[in-house]
Each structure stands twice: as structure tokens, then as C-alpha cells.
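[job 0412] stage=fold_complex status=start
inputs:
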Amino acid sequence: MKEYAVKRTGIVERYQEYLPVTDKTPIISLNEGNTPLILSEALPKELGLKGVRIYYKFEGLNPTGSFKDRGMTMAISKAVEAGAKAVMCASTGNTSASAAAYACRCGLKCFVLIPEGKIAKGKLLQAFRYGAKTLMIKGNFDQALELVKEMTKDGKITLVNSINPYRIEGQKTASFEIVDDLGEAPEYHAIPVGNAGNITAYWKGYKEYQKAGKSEVLPKMLGFQAAGSAPIVLGHPVANPETLATAIRIGNPASWQSAVAARDESGGLIDMVTDEEITKAYRFIAEREGVFAEPASAAGVAGVIKLAQKNFFKEGTRLVITLTGSGLKDPDFALSFEDPVYTIEADLDAVREAVQV
Ligand code: F0G
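[job 0412] stage=fold_complex status=done
writing structure:
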């Protein structure tokens, strides 16, 4: 039988010169990364923005459907290199899905702590199917993270939340891809903010790539929290965070300080958007652009809409919005809009009657 070489294209192989890996690092990969940068057709038109190009960095097309895979390939590879036997994370759903997938791939035990009742179904089923031991805590993400920090303190179990620096290292490669695609960094980069690891990672990536001579400019980082879970905007932790964007339902982000640094060093901002604005943005990108992202991802789009309405973006600017996860993750939310369902007879007349062009 003829054998075909399958080219491995994960982010660690692709960007190893910028990552803390050696020849001895076993690379645990699902060929994550290399996600598309999609030019928006409808949004600039809708907002009346002339000469502004908006791109979606669609991270929902990673192997487990979110940007977490970039950080997880790195964190799990380093855990295996260090001889770990088990990993653990707290999660609003995507980190747990990703940790479970990469852990099972290399035979590591995986424990995930998730807030009971506040995790999208698609994410929960991933943790189950990838075989993680799934603990639903009667509390929120912030409480889960505190528990995980305690449990991993003695080093017997490796923590794979984004306070593990390898997670940030892997996630910064999304910035590299954007610069590689555009030939230069954009003027603005908009991104949802939850535990604040990703905005930290993107900013690190942009800075490192500039230093390496890959781009001249740096973007202004625009972070968006959900209004009911906006500790960084408010300047204090939120004890009972609420938002329908459950992925970013976080009241005390672990990477708070580095998110503020990304904001300030870049000359950007961190603002908040309401659940209503998130919902509108979520529907807009699905219904008008054909890009289906989860509610938390739509927070970045909602933020851009909010700023555009205040004439924030000048002509000639380029702007990238990270869509962090797939819309398929949250079927309950997707099906909550009372879309009409037409049940008809299985005959041509019935179809003809229903199809009026
Ligand atoms: N978007 C999605 C879809 C997410 O899952 C998350 C975080 C974020 C945005 C925010 O990213 O935390 O780096 O600021 N999800 C984590 C999780 C908390 O457990 O899956 P962040």
C-alpha cells in the first residue's frame, strides 16, 4: 500500500522559533491554528464605514472549536515533557473541552471543574466525549479557579488554565498568523475579555513579531467584557457575574493586570457591551456574513459596533476581530429565537406552495 506523508501543521511546528520548545519536546497536536482571516462584507456597509476594512479571525475553526487549542497544544506538550501524569483546569467550557482533547491524545488524566448549569451544551458534551473527569461545582468560574489553584499547588497535577504561561505562549501565535496574512499588524484588534489570558497573549504576540521585524506597527487593543461581568471596566471584582455569554461570565480575571497593560501600552481600551448588544452582533454575523460564532465571540463585534457608532474608526484603518469560538458550541442559545419551523407533506405541491421566490 502506498503511504502518503501527512504534513503536520500545528502552531508549535509552525512557530517553534518563537516558542519555548526544544528537540526533546514531544509535540501533542491536532493541527490547530492556521484559521482563516475573513474579510467582512456586511459590517462596514451596515455601519456606514468608508475605507475601513474589518476582518474576522475565526478561531471557531480550531480542532475543538475554540482558540483554546493554541494554548493547549503548548501546555500539554510541556506537561508531557516534564513527565506529568494528570492535568486540571477550571473552565466556562472551552478550556475544559480543549484540555480534555489534548490530554486524552497523549494518555494524560484530565480533571475539569465547571460551574454547574452555566456551561453551553456543546462544551459539556466535549468534556464527556474526550473522557475528562468532569466535576460540576455549585459555584462560578472564579471559585472553580481558586479550587484548581489549591489542588495543583504541590505540582502533582499540572494546571492548564491560562495562568500556566505555556498557554499564553501558544495563544500568541494567532497574532503571528494575522501579521503573516496581512503583511503587517492591523491598526486595531478587538477581542472579548473573560479571564483575560487571550488579550494578554495577542499583545505579547504582536510585540514579539514586531521585534522580529515582521511588522512595523502595533495595533491598539480593544477588549470587551459583558456588562454583567465587567470587573476590569468597573475597576473591581464582580462577586456574582452574569451574562448570557457564559464563556466570559467571570468576575475576577486571573490575567487582570496584563490585560490592563495590553490596553495601556497599546493605547487601546477595555469597554463593556450589554447582552442585548451581544445578541444583535451574534445574529448579524451569522445571518448577514455566514459566520457562526458563539455569544462570547460576538462581544468583540458588539464592541466594534458600539465604537463605530461614535465615529471611532477613521478612514483607511484595518481592524481585526477575534471570533473566539464556534456557534455550534451553544445550541440552546442558537435555538432560542423562535425561528418558524414549517412541517409539510413530502410532496412537490406542498413544497411548491411553501417556496415562493
Ligand atoms: N471567548 C470564548 C469563546 C471563551 O471561551 C473565552 C474564555 C473567552 C472568549 C475569553 O478569553 O478568558 O482569555 O479572556 N473561556 C475560558 C474557558 C474562561 O474556561 O473556556 P479569556
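[job 0412] summary: The mean pLDDT is 97.
[job 0412] exit 0
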